[in-house]
From TrEMBL:
It comes from Brachypodium distachyon (Purple false brome). InterPro entries: Bulb-type_lectin_dom, Bulb-type_lectin_dom_sf, G-type_lectin_kinases/EP1-like, Kinase-like_dom_sf, Prot_kinase_dom, Protein_kinase_ATP_BS, Ser/Thr_kinase_AS, SRK-like_kinase. This is Receptor-like serine/threonine-protein kinase. Residues 17-156 form the Bulb-type lectin domain. Keywords: ATP-binding, Disulfide bond, EGF-like domain, Glycoprotein, Kinase, Lectin, Membrane, Nucleotide-binding, Receptor, Serine/threonine-protein kinase, Signal, Transferase, Transmembrane, Transmembrane helix. It is a single-pass type I membrane protein. The chain crosses the membrane at residues 431-459. Belongs to the protein kinase superfamily. Ser/Thr protein kinase family. ATP binds at K515. One of its GO terms (cellular component) is membrane. Pfam families: B_lectin, Pkinase. Residues 484-770 form the Protein kinase domain.
Amino acid sequence: MAPLLLLPTLLLLLASSASTQAQKNITLGTTLATQGPNSSWLSPSGDFAFGFRPIEGNNSFYLLAVWFNKIGDKTVAWYAKTTAQDLSSGQDPIVVQAPPGSVLQLTMDGTLSLRDPSGKEIWNPQVTGVASASMRDIGNFALVAADGNTKWQTFDAPSDTILPTQVLPCNQSPSKSLRARLDITDYSNGRFLLDVGTDGNLAFKLVAVPSGHHTARNGSQLVFNETGRVHFLLTNGTEINITSGVLGSMKDYFHRATLDTDGVFQQYVYPKNPKSSILGGEVWTAVSLLPQNICNAVVSEYGSGVCGFNSYCTFDGTKSQTVSCACPPQYKFFDEERKYRGCKQDFEPQNCNLDEASALAQFDLIPIRGVDWPLSDYECTSTCWKKKLHLSNGNMADYVQRTVLLKVPSSNNSQSEFSSASTKWKKNRKYWALGSSLLLGCSVLVNCILISILVFGAYCSITRKKAQSAQGTFTYKELEKATDNFHEVLGSGASGVVYKGQLQDEHGTYIAVKKINKVQPETEKEFMVEVQTIGQTFHKNLVWLLGFCNEGTERLLVYEFMTNGSLNRLLFDDVRPNWNTRVHIALGVARGLLYLHEECSTQIIHCDIKPQNILLDDSLVAKISDFGLAKLLLTNQTRTNTGIRGTRGYVAPEWFKNIGITSKVDVYSFGVILLELVCCRRNVELEVTDEEQTILTYWANDCYRSHRFELLVEGDEEAVFNIRKVERFVAVALWCLQEDPTMRPNMLKVTQMLDGAVAIPTPPDPYSFISSLP
């Protein structure tokens, strides 16, 4: 009788379960908001959630994500990226960041649409005819048609993680591959891509990808099966294990496999009941990793390798299994917080004019054992491997049979002697490549000493012929084909139109082609100036010239393609970029100008610094572009007389006076841009309610004098929170905007003031000439 008595209860439980499952089907018209109780949709068990997750350390944006809902840190397993259809540029998808107040809706028309507070659509999965949606217990969010077929699912658009039962086809599209994030709290595209090799003996490759380099084996699949094993399934049915084994059952543990920020592919488990787990603790435990030592597993001619340029990778093979990046002696990281960006020298370059004896006295060679930079060779003899900027794929380990001799300033050198030599060196630099290195290798059969001289550092003057040979030469037909007969216009200026193109190389490199309108003597000179100018520069905050075309009457310049367009578009769009992004852009522009003015072999005055000439890469790093108006000063010149150049609103007052033009014209333009970055508005806005706010430079000066900085960033919570930095940036801008160019700081002083490295005296009113900058 007992089973019969239990029957109603069992039926009731089944009905309750069915009801719960039915509630998990998301119907048309349902919405999610970034905040509040309706910010996510749960799976039936509650193990997973789909919806808005605040980005750690950034209160201004949310991820549209799938996460493990029942664990403490709510680990993200998927996050939305722009789809292929969204990207007219055709390049790697970028992470979708939704501002507060955004709404996700499964519309009555059968589409899923994410819109910002103004109603502008910022993401949709590009499918229609959806009847419902569901967040499933396997961690897969799906859009379903009326017949029950899946129209779209997160399992088909992976981010950096793969979950049990998920299968990824390995094809030519990076959007279908696992891509590491940039940092643990930065979901931007990182440098590593899980890539299937074309070599039958290679299970997979980890490629550090600064661009779209990607190879794949068509037909193979990456499979995370229901037993917790990750493997490649080849077209002939062969299975190649990726993870070596699994600790813990699928019943008792959550599982994920993630391509981590350092490029290591690891499988993790998390106990569903920590108290009864043999692992203990509410943490993810790595149970398998590949490769075992990534420092020697990733060696590629594309990108810098595991660590940034001019640095090297070390791996702790003990229980911690940690990867670290380090700089050579007397080098320092570009960014201490993001060491993967590489290293730069922390000393002045060598005086190229010294004779051999003087040079040897001025510098020491420091031996570094067990380190190697295997690529970047530009010359090799029986006793010498010479290397050029930048060193890549650096690796330090006990098994590396190499000793590098690194050239650094002599410790016996007095500071005054070194400064004197550096001053002379700046006046006439030759072209050197990189530091000094001694590579030693021994065996029973061969006893060979390989001496590599790596002359770290200096960029020096080069002739026009050398400048041209440093870049690639393109034919007009190549560029015509690459741009689809100059079809898509990216922008235009006084000297020409810029078109988008794609090279027919193995990587399908995207380019920006500037076509000079009219070949007149004046334009011809401008073309050659731009080729020569950019040919002599290399800096992370300057656009990279890939090559040029000088064929018949055609003059074209080929640049790297900047995925995020110009600062003009980012800064004055409907959605205000977050404060930290604007700060980094300001610092980037300042450092780019510092390089042009003081660190280049020949001083370069840009003459047309404005938001349209500041381009942004996929990480929103600012790069100064368009050197067509640049003025090259010889070493014995301090100023030049020329016609008025530049753009209204950014032009320094001395352009309209009969006085010489110096690099301070760029400082003035930077001051205007700095205020625009702080306030997120154009310098001149006629349609404002308060007439006093029409000219930003005047208004900012008034606000500074009255200590009302909050008026400049009204409604910008992040900037208000950092009001001290706002005050500092406004003060720097007002120094840059001084009427008298001699009162303006140089760009070295500007960068120091922006960084907070030096105190900022109160700037005088730009319309008075009472005080000057100490």
